[in-house]
Task: inverse folding
């Protein structure tokens, strides 16, 4: 099973990006899917998570700027990033929880001031 992220890039502060993550390979019924991020020199941190029932929760720093959604039929999860700030610069990782934890390879998001 693989998780493949896409949608990262270089944008200016205040801009938006849409991240996508699609699971391929062996099928799993994911309990939840979500996103973490890791900035240079910092630990990986939780960003957002959405359950199979559609319940979403976010890290405090999101402050209403990001929106997570999920397409269960395709085992895909999306993260809409709005009002981006330079401190949002990080590698964003997709993750999924089923019989084990699965992680993508990450996609770089860089926000310039």
Result:
């Amino acid at each position: 099973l693989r998780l493949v992220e896409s949608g990262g890039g270089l944008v200016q502060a205040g801009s938006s990006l849409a991240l996508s993550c699609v699971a391929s390979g062996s099928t799993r019924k994911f309990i939840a899917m979500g996103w973490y991020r890791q900035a240079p020199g910092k630990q990986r941190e939780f960003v957002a998570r959405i359950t199979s029932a559609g319940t979403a929760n976010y890290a405090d720093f999101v402050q209403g700027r990001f929106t997570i959604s999920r397409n269960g039929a395709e085992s895909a999860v999306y993260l809409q990033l709005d009002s981006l700030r330079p401190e949002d610069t990080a590698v964003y990782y997709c993750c999924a929880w089923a019989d084990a934890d699965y992680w993508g390879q990450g996609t770089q998001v860089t926000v310039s001031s």
Q: What stands out?
A: The chain has a mean pLDDT of 94. The first strand starts at residue 2 and ends at 6. The chain has no helices and eleven strands.
